[in-house]
Amino acid sequence: MKRRRKARVNSEAPDDQSAAEFSFSLTRVAVSQICLSVGYTSTDTSSTLDTLTLITTKFLQSIAELAASFSNSANRTEANLFDIVNGLQDTALATSDCFPGGSTLHNTESRCLIKSAVLRNLSDFVASAFEIPFAKPLPRLEISGSYGGDSTRVPRSPEMKSIPAWLPPFPDSSLYLERYTKERSDHLWENSDSVIGRGTLVESSGVESSRGRSSGRLPLRRASVRFKVERDWSSGGGGSCKSVTRLERWRDDNDGEFEVKKKMGEEYIYCADIDAGVWNM
Amino acid sequence: MNHGQQSGEAKHEDDAALTEFLASLMDYTPTIPDDLVEHYLAKSGFQCPDVRLIRLVAVATQKFVADVASDALQHCKARPAPVVKDKKQQKDKRLVLTMEDLSKALREYGVNVKHPEYFADSPSTGMDPATREE
After folding, report:
1. What ipTM does this complex have?
2. Is B70 helix (H, G, I), strand (E, B) or coil?
3. Average pLDDT over residues A83-107
4. Helices vs. strands in chain A: H and E counts, helices first
5. Which part of the chain is the Bromodomain associated domain (chain A) (predicted)?
6. What is the DSSP-derived secondary structure letter of residue A148?
């Protein structure tokens, strides 16, 4: 009994593989139609037709790459007729056919494309050849968010002109605006407990807090903040100021050997205590 | 200047010819569908909203395939016909696209498609035993 060897499953993603296979099979149908129109009735093996189909896809992609590179060289993202004709000329250069009229493309005076032999040949082909419509109708795909083939995309508003057209459109504003305001009101950093010393600062130094503010916006008229230096004379000369400004420090500089420093905070307390001979934590 | 006027007129004619050609593209339906062409163009980074340019690329590809196929057909017809026994068979000659004709036709377009004539187990398979290096 013969055992059939199963084909190894490709590790490629199924969507990519199926899309590539689908487009390849469509191209194969078109190529076979063209061969029929030329006069062929059949092919000896399927690999012959597959080879011709593969070369067709490579040809398409090579024209596209050339045209895209021409347009990018001219600081454009969208290709125009000049880019395509230049790409066709370069492709014709790869074949052994000569193409008269290629130099006139780059002539700054005339700048006329129809003088190019490649375009002339195409125009003759369109005029003489019979139309061969595709064998079966293609299913229309609903493409969401991607540019490929979507000619009915909504144009951007004037304030979004700086955004390139080939990027996918923004999602619906209702999806993100509401969420944003919710987060703002619930998780305002200034109101959270992660602010160090906020409670003691408000209570001890008598700061007029702006508790009445709403939605995180600072009011135009804000209460002024003042800091006081309190000396705890009971503990033996150690200062217990929570926060010190330079001005306040200079005023209290009667008996202590305070050094002028730019930093604020507990370091000054330590210094004062060391000078006084007492270490207060 | 006379020369300038003439060149201007010629330019107008050329522009008119180009416009007419682009307009005729909308009437002509290429064999390769627009969506399929757009898929391959987008795959290569080609961006263009104009349908006429997409049709131009489709027509160029169709012409390329038609040229290759017709060259292969010429090679097929140029081959001497085999000995025919019946007259009916002679009328009913089927034109078959073979790899041999296709590779000959594609060689002129700079594409090398060559199948090996046979597959061997090792480089020295089939060689004369005396010439084999052991």
Report:
1. 0.80
2. helix
3. 69
4. 8, 1
5. 20-97
6. T
